[in-house]
Amino acid sequence: MAKISIDIKSGNVKKESDLIIGIDLGTTNSLVAYIKEGNPVAVKGKNGKSTLVPSIVHFDKEKKIIVGDQAKAKLVEDPENTIYSVKRLLGKSYNDVQNVQQYFGYKILDEDPDSLVKIRVKDKYYTPIELSAEILKELKNRIETELNQNISKAVITVPAYFNDAQRQATRDAGKLAGLDVLRIVNEPTAASLAYGVDKLAEEAQTIAVYDLGGGTFDISILRIENGIFEVLSTNGDTYLGGDDFDKAILDFWIKEQHLNLESLEKQPSLLQELRLAAEQAKKVLSTEKNYQENIGGVKYSINKVQFNQLIQALIDKTIDSCKSALKDANLSAKDINHIVMVGGSTRVPLAKESVANFFGKEVFDKLNPDEVVALGAAIQADILAGNQKDMLLLDITPLSLGIETVGGLMDSIIPRNSKVPTKAGRNYTTSIDGQANLKVSVYQGERDLVEHNRKLGEFILKGIPPMPAGLPKIEIQFIINADGILKVKAKELRSNIEQEIEIRSQYGLSEEEMAKMLLESIHNAEGDMKQRALLEARNEANNILLSTDKFIVQNASILSKEEVETTLKFHQKLKIKVAETDKDAINKAMEELNEYTTPLAHRAMDVTIRESLKGKKVGKD
Q1: Phi and psi for 82 in degrees, rounded to 5?
Q2: pTM to 2 decimals?
Q3: Catalytic residue positions?
Q4: Residue 171: which residues within 8 A CB-CB, separation 6 or more?
Q5: Which is nearest to 378 in space by CA: 31, 1, 94?
Q6: Are 543 and 466 in contact (CB under 8 A)?
Q7: Number of C-beta neighbours around residue 88 at 10 A
Q8: Contacts of 267 (CB under 8 A, 6+ apart)
Q9: Cβ(179)–Cβ(137) under 8 Å?
Q10: DSSP per residue over 402-435, as a string?
Q11: Is 619 exposed, middle or buried (0-12, 13-18, 19+ CB in 10 A)?
Q12: Could you tell me the CA-to-CA distances from 10 to 156, 515, 516, 517 in Å, in that order?
């Protein structure tokens, strides 16, 4: 399958390679790098001091967006409008993050605990994808300023442990930032490339990459032979990192000073000041024995021994992941040739010592742990550009493949540039009570609406047993074999009813047509994302409207006349907003309806429980 280079300005397909950049989109800091005179280089800012761009987004009074160091300076004075650690929210639902909501200075919405999170800033609602795109735009602007040329292609790294939703969210953020994301690369693969471990010996190497960043941890076991990187196993936690070290120090100080977390939440500036001091304490204790700071007239201190005790359980958790990864790869610690340390949090001495002790050998930590992933991403980008002939690139899918979902949206199941052969699947359900048939329409392309993509075929899954909407479990599987033949299967898992379709060759698209589709996806990215956000908000709102109707009917006996009227008022407001085109207004109306009806729902549940327990004995006779 062909590689495609596009001149974004002219829209022409070009045969020569354009510059492809490497991006490390991090929880705490992000970087951009490229190949300069044969070597990977991380790009510094205008002041020439640092390659790091803090992954922080601030919205000022004029709603202007500020990213990086300037945004970081606003964490204390305006925390509610300053968003940090957004990578931790990519591809997450409210259920995934509700236990740590109080540690964020900004509002995470919870109107639907199972849907992807949204963040409220002033009167606007943002997804982690939109906020991540702002960070990527800043990186794009930084390298364009450095090189004085337009950049449109990138390789972006993600933790090896990122699931499909998180990877797709990263890809969407790149698209929204105006970047054609040619490859999503695992961070451990990028780090190994940066260290050149593939060139250390002629025979095969088995590498452990221990990656402890600001918000994520993963351990990957790689086999490298003849320039081919194979991930044998991976393990980790997308919610464990240096931020948790900071939180441990913060919790320590809260306990030491007998502070109340609830009252602290009402003082977001103080909470942020303490959080930043905790982060500084972690850094200082990597080289010093003690840390002390005066905040609001109160002395906060911690020593290295206390710090190590606080984070020991977290470090142990990472070592447990190392054990699991080795077990999954059918290897022992002695089988590992090299250990590569990645991520700023590996500067913590206890982490380094624990890893060296577990594997029984010294670790690779000579490169800057903050930069190593971005440098590797630049090397991977150079390989994609065809400038390194000694590395093997496996065949890939030229465009994303997916199905049509409610509202005419394209749900990508196999993203473009996936290795071939490959297989991927997702679970869906019905939207109507008693639905017996489900039409599966297969599309190819990069746009968010199927009307802008190419339809490859469709079939109908017949004979689904009549069930309430949402109860059937329908698995859609995409399988591409080594010959590029796509097979799509649909199966209702409760009844085992199934159907499939086969689509041959490169799906009937010429290189020029593929180039045109890619170009259109980049040019229309912002409009597409807005349209997708509006349709998703409408779909969610329509579900809430139906649920509210059912709730009023089912609980008429326990609701007062005033409660029913108020609920209907919010219901009607949401119904009006759904018919309009402002997704923020829809989200706000949903939030208002949810806030009012949540206590009513709790009361209804209590009544239901009491009724079900009437006449029943609880406990032993």
Answers
A1: -125, 115
A2: 0.70
A3: 24, 87, 187, 211
A4: 156, 181, 184, 415
A5: 31
A6: no
A7: 21
A8: none
A9: no
A10: EEEETTTEEEEEE-TT-BSSEEEEEEE--SSTT-
A11: exposed
A12: 25, 12, 11, 14
Q: What pairing do the DSSP bridges indicate for beta strands 180-186 and 153-158?
A: parallel
Q: Rounded distance, CA 121 to CA 582, Å?
A: 16
Helical segments of 162-260, H only: 164-176, 187-195, 242-256
- Band (pLDDT 50/70/90 cuts) for residue 203 is confident
Cα torsion for 296, 299, 300, 304, to the nearest 10°? 150
Give CA–CA dist 348/210, Å, rounded.
13
- pLDDT tens column, 174-184: 988 989 888 88
Residue ranges and CATH numbers for the domains of the chain are: 5-196+369-384 (3.30.420.40), 401-521 (2.60.34.10), 526-613 (1.20.1270.10)
Q: Two tokens at 342? A: 């990645």
Query: Is residue 219 within 8 Å of 321, Cβ to Cβ?
Result: yes
Cβ atoms of 408 and 451 within 8 Å: the answer is: yes
In degrees and rounded to multiples of 5, residue 502 shows phi and psi of -120, 135
Placement of tokens 């967006």 in the chain:
65
Cα-based distances in Å from 605 to 43, 304, 555, 590: 56, 49, 10, 21
**CA 617 to the chain's CA centroid:** 48
Sheet with strand 401-405: strands edge to edge: 409-414, 401-405, 438-444, 454-461
Q: What is the 3-state secondary structure (H, E, C) of 5-67?
A: EECCCCCCEECCCCCCEEEECCCCEEEEEEEECCEEEECCCCCCCCCCEECEEEECCCCCEEE
Q: Identity (one letter) of the amino acid at 148?
A: N
What are the C-alpha distances in Å from 19 to residues 123, 370, 433, 436?
39, 23, 52, 51
Structure token pair of residue 337: 């040739």
**What percentage of the chain carries pLDDT values higher than 90?**
36
Q: CB count, 10 Å around CB of 242?
A: 27
Which of 98-102, 148-152, 205-209, 335-339 has the weakest average pLDDT?
Answer: 98-102
